[in-house]
Amino acid sequence: MRPVIPYVTAALLFGLGVYGVLRRRNAVLVLMAVELMLNAVNLILITADTTVQAVLPHGGQVFALFVIVLAAAEIGVGLAIVLQLYRMRADVAVDRIPLSEQPEGQR
């Protein structure tokens, strides 16, 4: 098997994810773009595992499983933060999130 097609597909997925993170304003769409990047990494790990003879058998598949678990945890925590932000401000636009809260008396 030629690994060029999966590597190019992974590069396109990763590039699309980076574009989504940099250009989107909605926090849910940013999380979806991060998931695209993690899936691209999984594709690279699995392709490298099947094409490269490594010392550790099925090492890429094990690392891909860890990335999937990490992605599930990231989505759980990320969506909880987005839901709390929506409850507090009724908006999930990333560019409107204050990075430092000032006390009430200093506004």
Automatic annotation (TrEMBL):
Q: Which GO terms describe its molecular function?
A: NADH dehydrogenase (quinone) (non-electrogenic) activity; quinone binding
Identify the keywords attached in UniProt to this record, alphabetized. Answer: Cell membrane, Membrane, NAD, Quinone, Translocase, Transmembrane, Transmembrane helix, Transport
Could you tell me what reaction this enzyme catalyses? a quinone + NADH + 5 H(+)(in) = a quinol + NAD(+) + 4 H(+)(out)
- Which ranges does the record mark as transmembrane? 6-22, 29-48, 60-86
Main location, first listed in the record? membrane
Q: What is its EC number?
A: 7.1.1.-
**Pfam families for this protein:** Oxidored_q2
Question: What are its GO cellular component terms?
Answer: NADH dehydrogenase complex; plasma membrane
Q: Which InterPro entries match?
A: NADH_UbQ_OxRdtase_chain4L/K (IPR001133), NUOK/Mnh_C1-like (IPR039428)
So what does this one do?
NDH-1 shuttles electrons from NADH, via FMN and iron-sulfur (Fe-S) centers, to quinones in the respiratory chain. The immediate electron acceptor for the enzyme in this species is believed to be a menaquinone. Couples the redox reaction to proton translocation (for every two electrons transferred, four hydrogen ions are translocated across the cytoplasmic membrane), and thus conserves the redox energy in a proton gradient.
So what family is this one in?
Belongs to the complex I subunit 4L family.
Q: What is this protein called?
A: NADH-quinone oxidoreductase subunit K
Q: Which organism is it from?
A: Micromonospora phaseoli
Name of the gene: nuoK
